Amino acid sequence: MKHFSTFFVTGIVTLFLGINLFAQWEPDVRLTYDNSISFTSYNNGWCIASDINIVHVVWHDDRNGNPEIYYKRSTDGGTIWQIDTRLTNDSLASWSPCIAVSGPNVHIVWGDKRNGNLEIYYKHSFNGGITWGIDTRLTSDSALSDIPSMAISDSFVHVVWTDYRDSNFDVYYKHSSDNGTTWGTDTNLSNDSAFSWYSSIAVSESNVHVVWYDTRDGNAEIYYKRSTDAGTTWEPEIRLTNNDESSWYPSVAVSGSTVHVAWSDERDRIRPEIYYKRSTNGGITWEADERLTNDAAWSSRSSLAVSDSNVHLVWNDDRNGNPEIYYMLSTDDGISWGIETRLTDDSLRSEYPSVAVSGCSIHVVWQDDRDGNWEIYYKRNPTGNTIAENESHIPGFINEKLLCSPNPFTTSTTIILPSIGLNAKRMELTIYDSAGRLVKSVELETNTYQLGADLKAGIYFLKLNSKPVGKIVKVR
């Protein structure tokens, strides 16, 4: 019997051969092994970042007697992980790290008490996390500066944090335009007499987007502010929520002109639920709030990542009697959302998740006390980012789209192309492996090609020289 699974793609096809390549989540991976606490950040920064096949994770760990910043990376997309790297070494606490990556440039910020009060510190690797530069102190005042979040665009590094220098908690911002070598001045973004806390930042080219929660209205509400000139000037803030209950812990992500925000909201007067809203014009106007969760338990600490039209959301949820990590996906830029997926299932707490996306893969990291003490855990879905920006270095594939199919194709896969172009000339089909190496190149005299058993299980990229619209049919 033949079973058919058909899809369409323009220009580039990503083909998966072998078994166990459904759009499913792989087993949990424990990243730390020590008898102390290992925590992801409780802030709205991201503790995981990825670029092509390199995945970076950061956390704070008290294995040395006080909390220090630790780092770990995988160079094969999250399959094998290298040893832990200790990034800070002082006698006082370093915590709440956030990480961002662009190619070989890896940036980390965190809160640090080495100066007697909490300040924001920064560290940079120019070679993908192999070696690290010196610690750079970003704030210098006698008050508390903590809970940083960071986003990068090319050589611009943008940081926001909470600061008490004005005798109340405000959201502050600063940036570097030269990959963290020099830094501009601190800017107060919230500047009111209320409590402004837990800021999150995202950037698309020169457009910088910041959200936080603010008590200026008598209860916590979500506020938003943007800059269209890479953080040089800022427009007035916009209040995104308006109800008589608390709205907390926002996370922001952006792709082009579409800005996505998720947060925890108590308006339903039972327990906090995850809410979402978006702007399709770069933050000028905003659509209505949408409730994404609906259960009687606590849903909180959301984290967003976006890739093209795919929006990925993780959060921790108490509906199972203890906090577990849940996931939800929108494939149409936040217009509609799929079903919830429970990512963890153990009898103890799984909390504070962060999500990152690279190519076809989704990466999630969190803190977990299933082992009797808090450890860092990781999970991935290697084909869950269904349509992705191509980050590969395969010739001719830059800036193309990848179709990350959830289907487990086999070596009996047949490629069927429409007749367009084939009547006028022969088409060349070129097949590359996941490392960008040429596997084979064949001339097609018809619009059908049988792959054959000479391809081992794995991920392959197929390209046609005239890029017609085509389809792949799976045959078993």
Question: Would you spell out the secondary-structure blueprint of this structure?
Answer:
Blueprint: E1 6-10, E2 12-17, E3 29-30, E4 38-39, E5 48-51, E6 54-61, E7 68-74, E8 85-86, E9 94-102, E10 105-112, E11 119-125, E12 136-137, E13 145-153, E14 156-163, E15 170-176, E16 187-188, E17 196-204, E18 207-214, E19 221-227, E20 238-239, E21 247-255, E22 258-265, E23 273-279, E24 290-291, E25 299-307, E26 310-317, E27 324-330, E28 341-342, E29 350-358, E30 361-368, E31 375-381, E32 387-389, E33 401-403, E34 414-416, E35 427-433, E36 438-444, E37 448-450, E38 458-464, E39 469-473
Antiparallel strand pairs: 1-39, 2-38, 3-31, 4-6, 5-6, 6-7, 7-8, 9-10, 10-11, 11-12, 13-14, 14-15, 15-16, 17-18, 18-19, 19-20, 21-22, 22-23, 23-24, 25-26, 26-27, 27-28, 29-30, 30-31, 32-33, 34-37, 34-39, 35-36, 35-38
Question: What this model shows, in words?
Answer:
By secondary structure, this protein is mainly β. It folds into two domains: 6-18 and 393-473, no CATH class; 29-385, Neuraminidase. Helices cover 0% and strands 48% of the residues. The chain has strands at residues 6-10, 12-17, 29-30, 38-39, 48-51, 54-61, 68-74, 85-86, 94-102, 105-112, 119-125, 136-137, 145-153, 156-163, 170-176, 187-188, 196-204, 207-214, 221-227, 238-239, 247-255, 258-265, 273-279, 290-291, 299-307, 310-317, 324-330, 341-342, 350-358, 361-368, 375-381, 387-389, 401-403, 414-416, 427-433, 438-444, 448-450, 458-464, 469-473. Strands 4, 5, 6, 7 and 8 form a five-stranded antiparallel β-sheet that branches. A four-stranded antiparallel β-sheet has the order 1-39-34-37, with no helix packed on it. Strand 13 (145-153) and strand 14 (156-163) form a beta hairpin. The termini are close together.
